[in-house]
Specification:
This protein is of the alpha/beta class and 404 residues long. Helices cover 37% and strands 14% of the residues. The structure holds pyridoxal-5'-phosphate (PLP). The site of pyridoxal-5'-phosphate (PLP) has 15 residues, from helix 5 and helix 6.
């Protein structure tokens, strides 16, 4: 029923010309290819949960096609759990930045990882090979067996030996949360053979690293972090080839972990400034890493060779006093926002990981993880310097609930 294929407002990503150009150009224009034909400049936000389906015969055939293949619906959307045009724009844009055929968005980074695991277990594969550290909840999701997975934790040079006939995935983060450990992706990808390599690229973002160029098949983001970039949207996304994307769409439809359209709108908007933000925040982080490395109150600094806006460091004193001492910097979990955040992984982001496993992953109790924002670096340093100097006279208190 081809007359429905190009109705205004119902973009069909497969028929659209791809935005050419360098990364910064694609960051601004990708995902917006259909707007001019719609007579629009800003991307519209489609909040519909359902859509008119006057031709039930045709709708039935389209639903059959989706169930059989997982290919994105062509023509008008049917129901929001099946697909949404605002979210689809964000998916197209992220795929263009990561250099993949497709991307599939989810309600959160954890929903995205869950969908990948379920897609593989649907094929009877439940064994995962992974390298520590991973983000605490990713470690927990795989290690707890909540989804029926069995994990072999290994080092990069042990990946090939750890792979079994029932291995579903190899999972790595680089730079990893929270130690910023870097993994040689090319070497790990070579060791994976036919087993899909999933790289969590949340920390590097496609601005600094595009894992598919190094042999990864699946690139995962907690879009909550740098892609959104302003601390006000929760989301996840997997960039991959269209074949895997089809499995993920079917899982997403069946399990319902969809990204809300408002989140899709905010994430597309966030992508436009991603290269500028990541470069500016990385410059600040590199300067703070230099100062921390020269500071006697700091015993170790972790800063990735590829750069980035995250700095982790081990303090000689009490890390909890540093957290309690910051004023400009927000003592909070999460990362990737325009403002600087600091947290203690042993207490928060990686609390759910067993103490022994945390230690095995190199997560010291004296480790602090800082996400550097867009403030002037001198102001951030002044605050950090004061916090490192010990307890302040005026304790910081939590706001009253009434203030919210
Ligand atoms: C936060 C985070 C996740 C989980 O993402 P959510 O959006 O919080 O579900 C996964 N991986 C990394 C590296 C993260 O930092």
């Amino acid at each position: 029923m081809d007359t429905t294929r190009h109705l205004p407002g119902f973009p069909d990503g497969h028929d659209l010309p791809e935005t050419p150009g360098a990364l910064a150009t694609r960051a601004v224009h990708a995902g917006r290819e259909d707007l001019a034909a719609l007579g629009l400049h800003a991307a519209p936000l489609d909040l519909s949960t359902t859509y008119p389906s006057p031709d039930s015969r045709d709708e039935g055939a389209r639903l059959d096609a989706f169930a059989a293949t997982g290919a994105e619906l062509t023509g008008p959307p049917v129901y929001a759990r099946l697909g949404n045009p605002t979210v689809a724009r964000f998916e197209r844009a992220l795929a263009r930045l990561e250099g993949t055929e497709s991307a599939v968005a989810f309600a959160s980074g954890m929903a995205a990882l869950t969908a990948v695991v379920l897609a593989r277990s649907a094929a009877g594969l439940r064994h995962v090979v992974a390298i520590r550290p991973l983000y605490g909840c990713s470690d927990h999701l795989l290690d707890s067996g909540l989804l029926g997975t069995e994990v072999t934790w290994t080092e990069p040079d042990g990946v090939a030996a750890a792979i079994r006939p029932d291995t579903a995935l190899v999972v790595v983060e680089t730079p990893a949360n929270p130690t910023l450990r870097e993994v040689d992706l090319r070497a790990v990808a070579a060791a994976c053979g036919e087993v899909p390599l999933l790289v969590d690229n949340t920390f590097a973002t496609p601005v600094l690293q595009r894992p598919v160029e190094h042999g990864a098949r699946l690139v995962l983001h907690s879009a909550t972090k740098y892609l959104g970039g302003h601390g006000d949207v929760l989301g996840g996304v997997v960039a991959c080839d269209e074949e895997f994307a089809r499995d993920l769409r079917r899982i997403r439809f069946a399990t319902g972990g969809v990204l809300h359209p408002l989140a899709g709108y905010l994430l597309l908007r966030g992508l436009a400034t991603l290269p500028v933000r990541v470069r500016a925040q990385s410059a600040g982080a590199a300067e703070l890493a230099r100062r921390l490395a020269a500071d006697p109150r700091v015993s170790r600094v972790h800063y990735p060779a590829i750069g980035g806006a995250m700095v982790s460091f081990e303090v000689t004193g009490d890390p909890h006093e540093v957290i309690a001492g910051v004023r400009l910097i927000t003592p909070a979990v999460s990362l990737g926002s325009v403002d600087t955040l600091i947290q203690h992984p042993g207490s928060i982001s990686h609390r759910i990981v067993d103490e022994d496993d945390r230690r095995a992953g190199g997560i010291s109790e004296r480790l602090l993880r800082m996400s550097v924002g867009l403030e002037d670096v001198e102001d951030v340093w002044q605050d950090l310097d004061a916090a490192l100097s010990g307890p302040r006279s005026r304790p910081r208190t939590r706001p009253e609930p009434a203030a919210r």
